[in-house]
Amino acid sequence: MAKNVIRKNDDMNLDEVYRQLRTNIEFSQMDETLRSINVLSTNPNEGKSSVSLNLAKIFADKYQKVLLIDCDLRNPSLNKFLRVSNSKGLTNLLTHYQKGDLIQEQDELKIIDFGNNTQLYFLSTGSKVPNPTEVISSRRFSTFINEAKKQFDAVIVDCPPVFAVADGIPISHVVDGTLFVLSAKDTDKYDAREAVQDLQRNGANLIGVVMTKVPGFRSKHYYGYGYGKYGGYGDSND
Ligand SMILES: Nc1ncnc2c1ncn2[C@@H]1O[C@H](COP(=O)(O)OP(=O)(O)OP(=O)(O)O)[C@@H](O)[C@H]1O
Ligand SMILES: [Mg+2]
């Protein structure tokens, strides 16, 4: 029985898996539209950034205006996955952003063109700051996310791991729902339970779980190389 399930997974196209996840998210709350989602996990390396990017890409296949934000200010990675510059990004934008400003007009925003009319708006972390948690907990950050929810069809926020820093909690408060990533290979179930309970105690709206690194599922696990409209990987701030 289990063997059949694995074989089926093997044959599955990754797009199909993420399309199903997108549908599940779209239908997860019938009365409210989930417009913004953050992606969290217990520890580093469990697949949050890969899930964020794949999910953003599949939302961008369907919706015109999808924004992916890298909020892992201490350990940015999406700019590397997408091979775009991180010389300007979220932290720079937050120094001047005012309620009502059009996000699409901000210099810090990048457009990732995947072809086939699929475009993704991307905000990398930006210049390193000495106080990431303060930045993420600031009123300006929540104003920005609230504006993003109004101005985009979907907003996906990649976060640092729960056990490393507390940043995921204030982010969970400003988004509509939280997706929790478990790695079949790495995640300790007791640690994961503690992390989930921590999030729930702090008022996160957990909408579901994504399992990564499942044995037998061999596929490319993230998209996108070098589609950035603006400049190179070399000057990334990492
Ligand atoms: N579904 C998957 N199956 C197999 N390997 C994966 C999968 N998703 C991610 N990986 C691999 O796991 C590693 C970590 O992935 P990723 O950067 O997405 O994790 P992360 O949770 O964002 O890590 P960090 O906490 O350091 O930001 C990468 O080498 C990536 O290629
Ligand atoms: Mg990451």
From TrEMBL:
Xref: CDD domains: BY-kinase
Keyword Kinase: yes
GO cellular component terms given for this protein: plasma membrane
Keyword ATP-binding: yes
Database matches in InterPro entries: AAA_dom, Bact_polysacc_biosynth/exp, P-loop_NTPase, Wzc-like_C
E.C. number(s) listed in UniProt: 2.7.10.2
GO molecular function, one term: non-membrane spanning protein tyrosine kinase activity
SUPFAM superfamilies membership: P-loop containing nucleoside triphosphate hydrolases
Domain AAA: 47-164
Leader sequence residues: none
Keywords: ATP-binding, Kinase, Nucleotide-binding, Transferase, Tyrosine-protein kinase
Catalytic function, reaction form: L-tyrosyl-[protein] + ATP = O-phospho-L-tyrosyl-[protein] + ADP + H(+)
Entry similarity comment: Belongs to the CpsD/CapB family.
Name under which the protein is recorded: non-specific protein-tyrosine kinase
